[in-house]
Amino acid sequence: AEQPPPVAPPVAAPVPKPAVAPSAPKPAVAAPAPKPAVAARQPLATEKALTEQWLVWLGGLALALGGAFLVKLSIDQGLLGPTVRVALGAVTGIGLMALGHWLKLRAGNGRDLPWQVPPALVGAGGSMLFVSIYAAHALYHLVGRVPTFATLALVVAVIALMSLAHGAFVALLGLVGAYALPALVRADVPNAVGLFAYLLVVSGGLLALLRWRSWWWMAWAVLVASAGWTLVWLVVAWQPGDEAVLGGYLCALFALFAAFRLGVPRVPFLTGMAEAPMARRVVTVAALVVAGSMLAVMLMAQHSPVALALPLVLGLGFMAFGWRDAVFDRLPWLGAVLLVVVLGTWAYPLPQHFGLTAALGVALFGGAGLLAAFRAPRPWTWAALSAGAPVALLAVSYWRLMPLAPDWGWSIAALFLAAVLVTVAEQFNRRRAQPGIEGALGAAATGVIAALALAATFALAEAWLTVALAVLVVGIAWIDGKLHVTGLRKVALLVAAAVLVRLVGNPWLLDYALVEGGTVDWLVYGYGLPAIAFWTASRLFRRGADDLLVAVLEAGTVAFAMLLVSLEIHYRLTGGLDVDLYMTTPMSLLERSLHIISWSAGAAVLFAAQRRSGSPVLLWAGRLLLGLATAQAVLVQALSNNPLYTGEPVGEGAVFNLLLLAYAAPALLYVVHAFVAPQPPVWLRKACGGLALAFAFLWVSLEVRHAFAGSVLDAYTTPVEQAEMWVYSVVWLLGGVAMLGGGIWGRSALLRRAGLGVVLVVVAKVFILDLSQLSGLWRALSFLGLGAVLVGIGGLYRRFAKYI
Asked: What DSSP string describes 481-523?
């Protein structure tokens, strides 16, 4: 039977791909998406809004000017009388205001009418009404001063109320009119009470309006206008006794701005705090402006008990506001600073109640600040006030009231203040777990040290506050090491900066009197004690961190030490601290030499100290001192004011004369620097070695000249003889051979090449100068000696060539 044909194995059907993949359309990302219709219309909408706003307001301005021109035309033509003109202007203004308001009501919230038309009409009508009433008073004398003022004030009030419906520009128009009204309608006799009472009412009403509508930017205009009237009154209409009115006005003005920030309770549209950033900024600036205006008022009212009381009242207001609003808890510091400035700038003779004012300030800022520190959200701001204000007030009172002789009563008061602050610090230390109390502890501890420093200053007849501040830095460093209080390093940095400015950047420091003939003057403790204090504080603070504070303290240590040495040299040699900035009288050779020695030696000490500590401040300070010493030594001592041609006497001693200090000592110090100078850069040590050789060569040469010429080295006084010329060759040649031998023995290429250079100089001298200037035996000796030495040098090189 036939077998069936073989059946092919079934082929697996291909697995179909997911239907989603082939059927899914390509992403539509590649196709450009059409812009939204709103975005397409945005430029058109912006253009339309700007057109409506500016054109409509320009139209309103044109209406106001057109009305004014129409009145002017009637005046020129004599058509209407003054009464009719004023009445027509007023009626037109009222009509425009009514029309604008009616259009606003008719338009509602829709867009049937241009939105800027109603406020433009109201603004133009208000301006016409205001000008018409003012013209009736100022031009035609139809209305008296009081009715005019009252009517214009009513117009301004109506404009301000209508701004609630018509926007900020109408309100700005009312603001300008309200503050300009006292200048337009002036009284025959200036009345401070009436003027500033009116300004308070206007400012309060406008601030309430601006806060209600959130027109924060307009508060700047209120501040400028309200405070500006104070300055105008001080310049134009000030009378003795006005300080009470102006001071009360400024205090009330700040109260209005405080209410602008805090709100007014039980008034529905003014409750709550204004959190807008611009509102906070304008209140801060208002406090500064009020404090500055108050200072101007108090300086105008000299010796007035009311004027001394004003900073206390304003400070109390600042403290109340800072307690109510934690954002402004630093504002009481402004009140304390204002009182300190007032007491410090008060003119002599000081009133009897000067001390009482200072005592009340201590009680106010110290006591109230301390009470607030235990309960405030940020205790350190109030603790700093309670510690810093009493210390500052005590210092300024001592400065103004202190007689010429020291009084132990001031020291006792400072010690009592320190004891109080110690008790306060102890209370803060017990509450260190409370948030923010650590900063308060640091402030109280700093106040303790400051009070102790004041006590020491008061007890010493010639001690300065600067010395006490420098000691204060050490105290802060010790407290920081024991308590690790946050913020003390910043306080120490500020105090250190104040000491540096006082002792380094004070140009009047050189005018202070020194004790004539005394062994110890104020320079010793005025610079010496701060130098020691800064060095000690830098060591203490370095244990915590090597930061900017440590760098400033190290720099201050170097600056004070070098200024002490330099000023002492100048004082001891000249008898005073006068500095000739124009160099009309050159500095003496002795003083220049001592400065070079002190600066160069100081640089060597700094380099040695930098090797141990690794401080970059010491490194750069050493480089700076070495650079100053080198510039003075090379440019002045060796070149411009060399005694070889200045004729300045150098002394009669054979070796111990001014040349030893002027040239031998710098040469020796450069040798020291060749070993202690920091390696990078490499050229620094080589440069110091070269300078050492150069100054040694110069010293030997000048000593030869001194041996032949005496104290005065000038060649015009004592000409150079042949024997002196020959001695130069001998001495230089011996020196060159000595350097050559030393370079070979010490394997120093620099010293060996310098010796060869000196020998070549002698060769040039013998063949050029000696050949022409010397004669007879001296010429023969020069050439014989030179030849013998050159032959010996050749043998020296052959004998010791293996060591080179």
From this structure: HHH--TTHHHHHHHHHHHHHHHHHS-GGGGGS---TT-SS-HH
pLDDT at 460: 65
How far, in Å, CA of 164 to CA of 172, rounded? 12
Residue corresponding to tokens 């070993």: 675
Q: Which residues contact 297 (CB under 8 A, 6 or more apart)?
A: 230, 234, 243, 246, 247, 250, 307, 310
- pLDDT digit string (tens) for 106-152? 766 544 444 566 887 787 788 778 888 888 877 777 888 888 888 88
pLDDT at residue 221, rounded to an integer: 95
Reading phi first (left if > 0) and then psi (alpha if -120 to 50, else beta), residue 583 is in left
pLDDT value of residue 406: 58
SS3 436: coil
Question: Are the beta carbons of 270 and 263 closer than 8 angstroms?
Answer: yes
Cβ neighbourhood burial of 784 (10 Å; 0-12, 13-18, 19+) = exposed
Query: What pLDDT does residue 19 have?
Result: 44
What is each CA distance from 731 to 530, 644, 696, 727, in whole angstroms?
A: 49, 18, 12, 6
- Span between the terminal Cα atoms of the chain, in Å: 119
CA-nearest of 359, 347, 370 to 312 is 359
What is the predicted pLDDT for the residue at 113?
42
CB 343 within 8 A of CB 397: yes
Question: Encoding tokens for residue 775?
Answer: 């004669």
Least Cα distance to 566 among 603, 523, 525 occurs for 523
Can you tell me the distance from the alpha carbon of 588 to that of 641, in angstroms, rounded to the nearest whole number?
Answer: 9
What pLDDT is recorded for position 37? Answer: 43
What's the rounded Cα separation, in Å, for the pair 512 and 499? 17
DSSP sequence for 215-268 = -GGGHHHHHHHHHHHHHHHHHHS--TTTHHHHHHHHHHHHHHHHHHHH--TT-G
For 377-387, write each residue's pLDDT tens digit. Answer: 889 889 989 99
Below-70 pLDDT ranges, the chain: 1-81, 107-117, 303, 348, 351, 403-407, 460-465, 486, 506-520, 579-585, 765-804
Q: What is the pLDDT of residue 259?
A: 94
Q: Is the peptide bond before 10 cis (omega within 30 degrees of 0)?
A: no
CA distance 535 to 92: 82
Place of tokens 């003109």: 85
Closest CA to 389 of 319, 448, 461, 340: 340
Residue 789 C-alpha from the chain's centroid: 67
Question: What percent of the chain has a predicted confidence (pLDDT) above 70?
Answer: 79
Distance CA 568, CA 519 (A): 11
**CA-to-CA distance for 286 and 374, rounded, in angstroms?**
28
Those residues whose C-beta lies under 8 Å from the C-beta of residue 588, and which sit 6 or more positions away, are 573, 648
Q: Report pLDDT for 347.
A: 72
Structure-block tokens of residue 540 = 């203490």
pTM check: above 0.85: no
What is the DSSP track for 72-129?
HHHHHHT-S-HHHHHHHHHHHHHHHHHHHHHHHHHHTTSSSS-TTHHHHHHHHHHHHH
Decide if 152 contacts 163 (C-beta within 8 A).
no
8 Å CB contact between 441 and 482:
no
Give which of 310, 203, 201, 188 is closest to 247, Cα–Cα.
310
Write down the number of H helices and E strands in the chain: 31, 0
- Whole-angstrom distance, CA of residue 666 vs CA of residue 691: 9
